[in-house]
Amino acid sequence: MSSFSDLAVSLQKGYACAERDHQQELLNTLTANSGFQNLLRTNQLAKTILGLTDSMNAYNNPEWQEQAIEIIIASDVYSGVERREREQKEGKGDQNLGYTDFLVLELLHWFRHKFFKWVNKPDCDRCGNADQDQIEPAGNAPPATREEIQGRAAGVEIYKCKKCQEQIRFPRLNNPSSLLKSRRGRCGEWNNCFLLLLKSLDIKCRSVWNSEDHVWSEFYSESLQRWVHLDSCEDAFDNPHLYNRGWAKKMSYVFGFGEDYAIDLSEKYICKDLDRALPRNKIDESSLSTVFRYVNAKRWASETDDTGLYKKLVQYNLEINALTRTSSANSFAKNQEKSQTEMKPRESGSAEWTKNRGEDGR
Question: For this UniProt entry, what's an example GO CC term (predicted)?
């Protein structure tokens, strides 16, 4: 038994070494290819992929994770997990889910309903005005205050309170630690903060980016042996067709960015049986595939742990094969078990905002 195990480890290391060499050769070839390098510099979608490839590294800050854990411990998340475990023992609920799945479900619900706040227009801090009709947009400004700069705000939205004439600043914070304090924003801030919470619990997760201006998350469920869709804005769990089918959102590109690899997830999220697939014309498909091969080669060629590289490559190939052979129609067959209340128009955001974005289910 020991010799068989040793042989398996030896074969895995051999595969990892050979694949590392192959990835390095590919990287060298693409780095020397002037046409491809020009594509990386000039094509906006390629530049977006490059910019997001290492985005998950931002959540590995030990101090931020400690802050997140303290907040979770003080919440009712773990009592909810215990309740779900008791119910499962009684034969209730999904018997295929495990402890981590319950933890993610409870974290989602608590985050959506008790922790984070959606902002259409910010309330007035001076007079307390929260009437959205009495707050009007007044332009944009660069980060200026200490909070805005430390929070790595991409920009600041300016509003005016009609009641007291006060100027209201709404910084679009990018620092996950700052978001633990502000606890407000739109989908970008929600996803950013939620990913930090997942990472603080040592849950394998990744960010998912949609070119039609939305972001969400996925985590890897050991119980289900696959990546599971999560949307903290909607308290949505394992409902990948929520956007295309529930929101009636038209989509073209959906990409996943994890610590192990980046991947095109469009096949998973866009339904082929609906007329809601936008043209994929921002880059030709062959070049897009090469961009993903390039960013993954950069990561895998520098991986020194043979066992770790082997596991990453196996999981990547399994996911690619699953995406290739599973059509969106077949995927929806599994999703038909979702109740009508789960396939619903967008809940986060004002009615006017979701209508303007084509996410109101019509």
Answer: cytosol
